Amino acid sequence: MATEAEKKPLAEKQKDHALAEANGAPTEPKPAETGTTADGPDAGKEKSKTAKEKDELQTRKWRDKADEDNHRDGHRRDRGGFKRGGGGRGGFQRRDYSGNVKTNYEDLPESNDADDIRKQVEFYFADSNIVQDKFLLTQIGGAENKPISIKVIHNFKRMRRFQPYSAVVAALKDSKVLKVTDDDEVARVEPLPEGTTDDVDVNVKVWTDASKTRSIYAKGFGLENSTTQMDIEAFFEPYGPVSSVRLRRTHPEKHFKGSVFVEFGTDELAQDFLNLEPKPKYENNELKIMSKTAYVDGKAEDIKAGKIRPSEDYYRRDGGGGRGRGGNRNYGGGDRYRDRRHRDLDEHDERDDSRRRSGRRDADKRDKYADEQAPGSAKKRTAEDDGEQGDTKKSKTEDE
């Protein structure tokens, strides 16, 4: 049967041992802490760490687990077109795909050719471009036909190579579709029709439908390089006049698909190109050529049959990623679908923010739980105290 001394709690036994040592009285070996063992020649020695070290070790384990979960959640949030940036958990930024556009207009040689100058600026103001160009459409005020400073036009990427500035002004004065004011401003001779909307998305649909019969689709132009836009324009020039050549790109990565939409000046010119025999080759490569109407109808049939998935935005796909002779410019954002893309990205941001907020709430819960489970926390101490009180009551019951 156990003696009264053996029934004492471990803490009291250790306290009695310390008092005996202080008074110089002979003592028994120091009682071992709960959870320790004493085997062989090391019997009676502590093999476990101190209570403080145990607490620190357990806290580190909980923290490491929480950090690991946060890191894993961060990788989940990184997927879907966004990359980690600064600013803690919310530090995200959009990826920049502009480097995937290889055509570089700034490498073009300097020129003062009057025909090239007029051709380029007349393209900017042509119906096929200006109704879809947010920047230019706003500048001219739609049907108001307000003039624009030639210096603004001259600062477009594809215009900077034309030097000197006086040569640009002189060339535009000889244009039959543009007029130049005494203040060196340029405007259309014929204004846009009354009621022309300033909503480029509406204009894209209207103009795409109207120009479809004089447009063709061609594929097989290979990979893009710094002169691809200009080279393809030169390839189609003998069959024109050509209103625009638009390189088609993936969205949002902006990789060139190797195909283009070409708008000719008239329906007859487009049909003449389609009827050419043998079909023209581009750098000795066979081209797949068809009318734009046939291409669009074929895609619609494939979507209906489930062969391909519909694009997020039909007209973004339809218009491609190039701007013909206009090219990407520092004015207007370099993309006539800029506003719609921004709306799409804003909606994506809202969804992504919601995911991040949800992730932060989960992380906060884990952090709170880790703090509560840490041995030194108030909640943990309360639980331990409750456990000790339960042990005391149990001991008293056993004694009774």
Automatic annotation (TrEMBL):
GO terms for biological process: RNA processing. Keywords: Nucleus, RNA-binding. The keyword Nucleus applies. It is found in: Nucleus. Residues 214-301 form the RRM domain. Residues 1-19, 42-81, 311-320, 335-371, 390-400 have a biased composition (Basic and acidic residues). Pfam families: La, RRM_1. This is HTH La-type RNA-binding domain-containing protein. Residues 1-112, 311-400 are annotated as: Disordered. Residues 321-334 have a biased composition (Gly residues). GO terms for molecular function: mRNA binding. Residues 107-197 form the HTH La-type RNA-binding domain. The keyword Oxidoreductase does not apply. GO terms for cellular component: nucleus; ribonucleoprotein complex.
